[in-house]
Write a structure and sequence with these properties.
The protein has 267 residues and is of the alpha/beta class. The chain has one domain: Dihydrofolate Reductase, subunit A. It is 26% helix and 22% strand. The chain has 7 helices and 9 strands. Helix 4 links the parallel strand 4 and strand 5. The radius of gyration is 18 Å and the shape is globular. It binds NADP nicotinamide-adenine-dinucleotide phosphate. The site of NADP nicotinamide-adenine-dinucleotide phosphate (NAP) has 32 residues, from strand 1, strand 2, helix 2 and helix 6.
Length: 267
C-alpha cells in the first residue's frame, strides 16, 4: 500500500470550518439522524462559504447519513465562484480512515466534479476496491488515522486546492484541530438544546489533555439575526507545527464581499 507522507514545510490550503450548533454545542441528536435545524439564512451562508472554497470536505458519517453532495449549489453560487476566480464546481473530499464510507451514498450519484476519498492504512483492500470503483481518487495517508498534514499538502500540490471548507462532522473537525491545520471557523448558534452525551459536537475525537494544547481563537465577528447568532473566529494559535500559518489569506476579497452582501440582505 502506498502511504504518503509530507514534510512539514509543504504548503497547505487555507482551512475553514462551518457548523451549525445548538446552544449546547451539538451538531445533531445522539442518534445522529439528520435534522436540518438551522434557518434559511444559515443554509445560504453554507452555500456562500462553499463559493469561496476550491474543495469542500466532510467525514464518512456526514456523507453516509445525510443526503449531501457537497456541491456548489445553483447558478447564482457558481457565478460567485467564477467571479472569485475559482472553478465553477468545487472538488469534493471525503474522509474515511477505515474506508467504511458507503459506495452507494448520494454523493456518488452526482458526477459534476471529482470526488476524492482520504483513507488511512486501516482500510482493507476490499474496501479500497469498492471505493475506487465509485470515487475519482482514493488515497492513503497515515497508519491508524488520516494524516491531515500530509493529505492536505497533497491536495494543495496535486489538486491545486488553496482553500478548503470542512463541513464536519465532529470527528473530522476534531482531527483537523488536533493536526493544527484549521485557520477559521464559522459557527451558527441555533436556539435549541439537544442534550445527550453521545450527540456529536463541533470537535469530537480524542481532544486535548491540557489547556496549553487548546486551539486559541479570536472572535472576528458576531451578528444576530432573529434568534440565531453567527460567529466567525480566526485561529490565532493551534499547533505547534505551523506557528506562522495563521496570518495569511483569511478574509480575502471574495470572503469579505460574501460576508458583507449577506448581512446587507439579511438586514
Ligand atoms: N450541524 C452541522 O453543521 C453538521 C455538519 C456535519 C455533520 N453533522 C452531523 O454530525 C454527525 C456526523 O458526525 P460524526 O462526528 O459522527 O462523523 P464524521 O466526522 O462525519 O465522520 C466520521 C467518520 O469519518 C472518518 N474520520 C473522521 N476523522 C478521521 C480521521 N482523523 N482519520 C480517519 N478517519 C476519520 C471515519 O471514517 P471510517 O469509519 O471509515 O474510519 C469516521 O468514522 C451526523 O449526525 C450529521 O448529521 C452536523
Amino acid at each position: 500500500m502506498n502511504r504518503k507522507s509530507q514534510s512539514t514545510s509543504t504548503k497547505l490550503p487555507f482551512v475553514f470550518i462551518n457548523v451549525a450548533t445548538t446552544v449546547d454545542g451539538k451538531l445533531a441528536p445522539a442518534n445522529r439522524h439528520f435534522v436540518p435545524f438551522s434557518s434559511k439564512l444559515d443554509q445560504r451562508l453554507l452555500l456562500e462559504l462553499r463559493a469561496r472554497a476550491d474543495a469542500v470536505m466532510a467525514g464518512a458519517r456526514t456523507v453516509d447519513l445525510l443526503p449531501v453532495n457537497l456541491g456548489p449549489g445553483g447558478p447564482r453560487y457558481r457565478r460567485l465562484r467564477l467571479k472569485g476566480g475559482l472553478a465553477e464546481y468545487n472538488l469534493r473530499v471525503v474522509v474515511s480512515g477505515s474506508g467504511t464510507l458507503d459506495p452507494g451514498a448520494e454523493i456518488f450519484r452526482k458526477r459534476f466534479s471529482p470526488i476524492i476519498v482520504l483513507v488511512s492504512g486501516v482500510a482493507t483492500e476490499q474496501r479500497l476496491r469498492r471505493l475506487r470503483a465509485v470515487a475519482d481518487a482514493v488515497e492513503v495517508f497515515g497508519d491508524n488515522e488520516v494524516d491531515f498534514v500530509a493529505s492536505l499538502g497533497w491536495l494543495r500540490q496535486k489538486w491545486k486546492v488553496k482553500s478548503l471548507l470542512c463541513e464536519g462532522g465532529g470527528e473530522v473537525n476534531g482531527g483537523l484541530f488536533r493536526a493544527g491545520v484549521v485557520n477559521e471557523i464559522y459557527q451558527t448558534f441555533c436556539p435549541l438544546v439537544f442534550g445527550g452525551r453521545d450527540a456529536p459536537t463541533m470537535a469530537d475525537g480524542i481532544g486535548i489533555e491540557s489547556l496549553s494544547q487548546a486551539t486559541r481563537l479570536r472572535l472576528k465577528s458576531l451578528r444576530r439575526f432573529g434568534n440565531e447568532l453567527f460567529l466567525n473566529y480566526r485561529v490565532v494559535s493551534a499547533a505547534h507545527r505551523f506557528p506562522n500559518r495563521f496570518t495569511a489569506l483569511g478574509c480575502g476579497k471574495t470572503a469579505c464581499y460574501l460576508w458583507r452582501a449577506r448581512y446587507k440582505r439579511a438586514g
